[in-house]
């Protein structure tokens, strides 16, 4: 189940999910912009058949101007670069252009000429079009308020419609209904994205990030090292003699051990660390802002002790299973590929196994072993 806060604000979303959502929204922003750039001039055919020639020419010029104003959104969408604030600016610009066009059309009809149905429903259509974006409720309501205030002020200042009239009440009621429907669709899309994202990035057994997301995080950390010199360390942890646990106590016991180790490691993590299941009985931790091998070794030793001191109850018997881990650590180097970094950490892990297991080996240092398994 997703938390309600995940539907209300994007601030609680992970950075990686935000990037995924922004990529999804960027494609839809381009599609919506193209749709509007085609639809605005195309509607001029209806104006030509229903309006006097001077009025038609005035609105046609407004349509062309609005189309030209929207055109920069296509190239600018490629500059969003998965940034949430940039996407909000793009949506705000799109909203501003379309509401300006709506106000101009309202002004052109004036108070003496009846507003055609196509223009009367324009604000509601805009709310409906924004339903294609998986945006949180807070932003959706903000956009709806902008449309509502603009529409009411426009009818008051340009048409002379009273704020407290029956017509205003009807407009607020209809816009509210469209807003609720739009929010429902937007939350449905957000829910779908969250579910698909977590299914594709979460290890089903342990609940931690899977190898796919872990490698993505590793690649992003490598990029930050190149650009901003943000150093980090890669820690590989392997359960000692895990096959023997499966053979003696069964795979249910092995699964219980993996879950308990994942919980134990998660409890020991610091804010600048991320944990994932690398594969099988192997885990990986990214230690951001770690350039000191001694400090990295101390953190890893704390993790090793935490796993060693927690006994795991076998689900198939009353036995308590002792579990230990071997740990290898490699510090990232600028310009190095992720494969080379993983190979160096894996070599340290191999050295820890050869040293008798249940110990920590940092590249370039001797193993720190307190107790052999």
Describe the structure.
The structure is a single chain. The radius of gyration is 29 Å and the shape is elongated. The chain contains 15 helices and 8 strands. Helix 2 runs antiparallel to helix 4 and helix 8 runs parallel beside helix 10. Strand 4 and strand 5 form a beta hairpin. The chain has 2 domains: 198 residues; 159 residues, Alpha-Beta Plaits (2-Layer Sandwich), CATH 3.30.70.270. It has 373 residues and is an alpha+beta fold. The strands form 2 sheets. A 6-stranded mixed beta sheet has the order 2-3-1-6-7-8, sandwiched between helices. A two-stranded antiparallel sheet has the order 4-5.
Name a few traits of the molecule:
373 residues, alpha+beta, Alpha-Beta Plaits, 6-stranded mixed β-sheet, 15 helices, 8 strands, disordered C terminus
Q: Any idea what the shape is?
A: elongated
Supply the number of helical segments: 15
Q: Which structural class fits the helix and strand makeup?
A: alpha+beta
N-to-C span: 40 Å
Number of distinct beta strands: 8
Strand percentage: 5-15%
Largest sheet, strands/sense/barrel: 6 strands, mixed
Which range best describes the helical content: under 10%, 10-25%, 25-40%, 40-55%, 55-70% or over 70%? 55-70%
Mean pLDDT level: 91
Domain count = 2
Spatial strand arrangement across the major sheet: 2-3-1-6-7-8
Low-confidence runs of at least 5 consecutive residues: 369-373
One letter per element, helices H and strands E, the order comes to HHHHHHHHHHHEHHEEHEEEHEE
Q: How is the quaternary structure best described?
A: single chain
Rg result: 29 Å
